Amino acid sequence: MAKKKRSDKDAVDNPRGVASLAEAKAWMGARGITEIECAVPDLAGVGRGKIMPVSKFLSGPTMNLPLSVFFQTISGDYPPYDNLVDSVVVDSDLVMEPDFSTLAIVPWAQDPTAQIIHDAYHRDGRPVELAPRQVLKNVVDLYAKKGWKAVVAPEIEFYLVEPNIDADYPLKPPIGRSGRPEIGRQSYSIQAVNEFDALFEDMYDYSEAQGLEIDTLIHEDGAAQMEINLLHGDPIVLADQVYLFKRTIREAALQHKIYATFMAKPIADEPGSAMHIHQSIVDGETGKNIFSDSDGDPTPEFFSFIAGQQRYLPAVMSILAPYVNSYRRLTRDSMAPINVQWGYDNRTAGLRIPPSSPAARRVENRVPSSDANPYLVIAASLACGYLGMVEGLRPTEPLEADAKGLDFELPRGLLEAVAAMQHSEEIATVLGPSFVKTYTAVKQTEFDTFMRVISPWEREYLLLNV
């Protein structure tokens, strides 16, 4: 049967994405859009770019930004460029090309405003190897060359907190509609979610307007800690959705004078926040899950994917847990994993196999924290599974007991994680040597910045005692 051609009306009515500049013009005209936010996600997942009048965008949709946007640390600093890039080249302009499939409105903007995600290219047309979206595309292409297609479903945890304008003060749960803050653990509580009904109604409205597909919303373990699950799908599409969702919930919260934070460990005595990634691999032609055979049993590829995660996740830990704060989440006395053991429906292990039908057999990576860049964390996780399959690795036996009592198998801190990435030739081959070199230099610079800060703990215990 011939594929039905999409009409101009279909393109205009679609809340998210068009196929061309001409369709974009009609789409924005139908909505009275006057401005457009043109962004490219950087190494931290922060959107860098420009806001321009629609007339300027339509006259030439590409924009220029310097290569340095992919060298910037979370604090706005830059690593030494020695052995990384020429100091002239780093400030030379790249060409940012819009991906029209990401076109959506900015529903919280005062004036009719659109947004669109860009991809970065060198002036000779080569994709920029440091761009996180490109790193993920490269991994997806590796799967395609094997006749495979990855399917992912992220789960993102976050906290709602009172506005905090002085970083010296700890974060606190916000006041809900009852007029009281949450003080106890309220896992899966409907009533605790209802405390912020108005905020979440805005979040759903904003998400629907942008074409973001939210599966479920639940209350997690921590005080005012929530989790959003997204529908499964293409890795690049889902990474785009996580990138946009983080901004969406922050904006919805600000409308109610509340902060939404994706810090891995924002409150000392509360659980950390994770970004769990459910992963399955399907045949590129048939769409059948290659983790299950015709009898519904697990395949060698399924076990090799697990084994690849076991072997290589420690080497990409600086992506899965990208900041000093990230490692405060990974402690023995919490639900966050400390090793790469795996088990069937075992949430204490780093790798969980959820109960499912054979067609939905998948591997849940529970190691990443919610502060991670969604493009990089999905790319890194899939890269580990890919290496396991192409190398024919075999996993350990599935664990039925509590994994918390076992040894740490993951890096305990950022510098240890950076070193693990630097020493993995396999990861450099899959993610790109120039990306690995730049990314680890940025992480080392961020650690150096952190070390310039004297913490309250140091003043409390060292000031008069040493």
TrEMBL record:
Keywords: ATP-binding, Ligase, Magnesium, Nucleotide-binding. The keyword Ion transport does not apply. Coiled coil: none annotated. It holds the Pfam family Gln-synt_C. Its cofactor is Mg(2+). SMART domains: Gln-synt_C. InterPro entries: Gln_synt_N_sf, Gln_synth/guanido_kin_cat_dom, Gln_synth_cat_dom, Gln_synth_gly_rich_site. This is Glutamine synthetase. Residues 132-466 form the GS catalytic domain. GO terms for molecular function: ATP binding; glutamine synthetase activity. Belongs to the glutamine synthetase family.
